[in-house]
Design a protein that fits this description.
Length: 326
């Protein structure tokens, strides 16, 4: 019986916490990947040799396959279950290098919104400087927009606009799965409270609002009511649904450009600029050869009594605590 096997990646410093093993007639294929199923977005897969499969692998899922066939530049995977049973591994190129994406019919549709975003400069700004949170994974590159990016640790949000060292506007990016998860566990409430302290802020969702009513692991009414309640409580932080990642990226660029024009041209805006300042930190501490590794910071945190996970990515406040202490 052919099976698709998903295990934990034993490399704690990897940003891809899972190993995906796919059977093929010529030999199994092994990938590092970021999730166990492409639900809200296509998952990037990094191909590795079978020697990376651990002898004592911690199995997350072992799924029986109905079919697993390669057709050209893709492998069609069909599982022996009723829901979430079809997906595809696509071999393609991006920025001149070979890449593999794991996508479902839903994420494949989302990836092509069938629109062309405008190329005109937002608000007439030649090149907008967008600050990307240092801990944002798979960040927007704004390659199709008139913008450049710099990485700093933002106090709130994932993409910000900084003027004279002050955070003027910020956008929190959410996939549908992340939106629902953060809403149900209460984290979204605190995120909106932080964003509301800024002069301008928003939450952008990489999906349609209608998808809320197709959820099968939580009652749609609970999610819809929760979002409505948050909008009433914090009306100055809109939650915007943008159908797909491409459109969410475009909306974020236009929003921050409009905030830049507002903050630099309106006298009233200049008097309301937030006192929240960004603090420059190493964009990727774990990847910096001169900085500590994730394992070093994890060991230090345990010594001083901070609560840290046994594996995986550390929270931004743990990195900040290490920097403050050193």
């Amino acid at each position: 019986m052919a099976e698709m096997v998903i295990a934990l990646n034993p490399d704690e410093d990897s940003r891809l916490p899972y190993l995906l093993r796919i059977p093929q007639p010529s030999g199994d294929l092994l990938f590092r990947t970021s999730g166990t199923w492409p639900r809200a977005k296509a998952l990037y897969c990094h191909p590795v040799g079978l020697d990376e499969w651990p002898t004592d692998a911690v199995i997350v899922e072992r799924l029986e396959l109905r079919s697993c066939q390669r057709r050209g530049a893709a492998i069609d995977v069909i599982l022996q279950r009723a829901r979430e049973n079809r997906s595809q591994l696509v071999f393609t190129t991006a920025r001149g290098r070979d890449v593999v994406f794991w996508q479902s019919p839903r994420t494949r549709k989302q990836a092509r919104p069938n629109v062309r975003t405008p190329t005109a400069r937002a608000q007439g700004i030649d090149e907008l400087e967008i600050v990307v949170d240092a801990h944002e994974r798979y960040a927007y590159q704004f390659g199709a927009q008139q913008a450049n990016t710099a990485k700093h640790a933002l106090p709130c949000g994932d993409y910000g606009l900084v003027i004279n060292g002050m955070l003027v506007a910020s956008v929190e990016r959410k996939s549908l799965a992340d939106l629902v998860s953060s809403l149900t566990n209460g984290r979204l409430r605190y995120q909106l409270a932080d964003l509301a302290a800024l002069p301008r802020a928003a939450v952008v969702v990489e999906d349609r609002y209608s998808q809320l009513f197709k959820l099968d692991y939580v009652r749609p009414a609970v999610v819809a009511d929760g979002l409505a309640e948050l909008q009433i409580r914090w009306p100055n932080v809109p939650i915007v649904f943008c159908e797909a990642r491409q459109l969410a990226e475009e909306w974020t660029y236009r929003f921050l450009a409009a905030a830049h024009a507002w903050a630099t041209t309106e006298e009233a805006a200049l008097q309301r600029i937030s006192s929240v300042r960004t603090k420059v930190t190493t964009p990727d501490q774990s990847a910096d050869g001169d900085g500590p590794s994730t394992a070093d910071v994890r060991a230090w945190a345990r010594e001083v009594g901070l609560d840290v996970p046994a594996r995986g990515r550390l929270r931004p406040d743990i990195w900040q605590a290490w920097q403050d202490a050193h």
